[in-house]
Amino acid sequence: MFAGIASRYDLLNHVLSGNIDKRWRRTLAEKLFATLPDVGTGRVTFLDVACGTGDLSFQLHQGQPGKVIGIDFCRPMLQIAKSKARAQQIELPFVEGDALNLPFADGSFTAVTIAFGLRNLSSVEGGFKELFRVLKPGGRIAVLEFSKPVVPVLRSTFKFYFAKILPFLGGLMSGSRSAYEYLPDSVQHFPDQAELAALMNDSGFVEVSFENLTGGIAALHFGTRPR
Ligand SMILES: C[S@@+](CC[C@H](N)C(=O)[O-])C[C@H]1O[C@@H](n2cnc3c(N)ncnc32)[C@H](O)[C@@H]1O
Fold first, then answer.
1. Pocket lining: 117 vs ligand 1, CB cutoff 6 Å
2. Which of 20, 124, 157, 204 is the most buried (most CB within 10 A)?
């Protein structure tokens, strides 16, 4: 599905979200950096899982150049990430691999991130298990994902936009209506803010917290692998 929409993915993200997606990724990076005391020393390493076309990886790279790897299992998405890196003359490795079987040793990274990726894994628990495994003890996880709007009026407007307008516009612009029908469907079946936090706790993460972004249209969850 992602291979089919890769060439239009960035454009659609920005148009369909009114560019808010950029702000959400920037917020993730800023908040994550703020919780990592070693940022700026060159000792921190980041893995951006399900990186797609790399927008979050680039955001992380801006704050911590040379310390970020992006990984995704969809080659056409990675090809776009790589061509964006080349165009900006940025050294940022984008590797092909499965989030459920990451090709990295235990305890490899100071921080792992996953933006709009967890919902697409065939097992959320399996994803958390792998993200936990590749984190160093004391390392941080940041999850950015669509969630459940907390303001009633926003909830109904968002539901209408997501269920009716987005599949139409997304289908028209990408040529794949099914991908943009899958999107609201997958969000509807994804755990809400508190449920996702509970799943993170069940997966072994501690200091789990979350904050709503844009009234809960998206949420940002953080956690720590215990020392
Ligand atoms: C909605 S995109 C998100 C891309 C990017 N993180 C962003 O913020 O725009 C979801 C990505 O998850 C990737 N993905 C889904 N399941 C995966 C898996 N098991 N392993 C690696 N990548 C996966 C897809 O290939 C796709 O690029």
1. yes
2. 124
